[in-house]
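Example 9 (inverse folding). The structure is encoded as follows.
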């Protein structure tokens, strides 16, 4: 017993001395310092990713949408709730679904508590699907039935806004729309 107590004291002394080494701030293995965090890097919105990073994230998102989201929450495809089998080509839909997926991952985590998934349903799922599948939403120009794949259409974005280019007092299109003072 006495020998065990001495060993425990020695371990405590060694552990205290290790944290005082000159390398403690660098978190080098065996040199003390702060433990390496086990958390994953901060996720970035998919529309900010490029190349292979984008493709990998889109593949993972597609698996979640195809294997979980749509089979469980997709309901029937109608003109009031359209869907597109080529949704990955609709940037806005990709952005919405990616945000929904990130929120799902956060709210299913045990740290979200027992009500985490309820919060996800209430605050994220219902709103995102209502926007994505709205009759006038981003998929409204696409098919309402998988039997009509030719009905896929990505709606064009609005043109760029007109900005004032003041080069010496000349008015441009932005000035024309302003009411006279």
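The amino acid assigned to each position is listed next.
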């Amino acid at each position: 017993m006495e020998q065990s107590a001495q060993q425990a004291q020695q371990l405590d002394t060694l552990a205290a001395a290790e944290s005082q080494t000159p390398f403690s701030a660098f978190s080098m293995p065996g040199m003390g310092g702060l433990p390496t965090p086990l958390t994953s890097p901060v996720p970035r919105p998919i529309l900010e990713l490029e190349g292979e990073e984008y493709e990998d994230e889109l593949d993972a998102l597609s698996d979640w949408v195809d294997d979980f989201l749509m089979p469980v929450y997709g309901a029937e495809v109608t003109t009031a709730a359209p869907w597109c089998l080529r949704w990955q080509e609709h940037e806005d839909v990709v952005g919405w679904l990616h945000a929904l997926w990130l929120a799902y991952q956060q709210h299913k985590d045990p740290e979200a508590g027992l009500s985490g998934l309820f919060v996800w349903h209430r605050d994220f799922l219902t709103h995102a699907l209502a926007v994505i599948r709205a009759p006038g939403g981003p998929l409204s120009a696409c098919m309402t039935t998988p039997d009509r794949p030719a009905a896929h259409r990505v709606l064009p974005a609005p043109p760029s806004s007109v900005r004032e280019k003041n080069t010496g007092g000349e008015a441009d299109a932005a000035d024309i729309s302003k009411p006279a003072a």
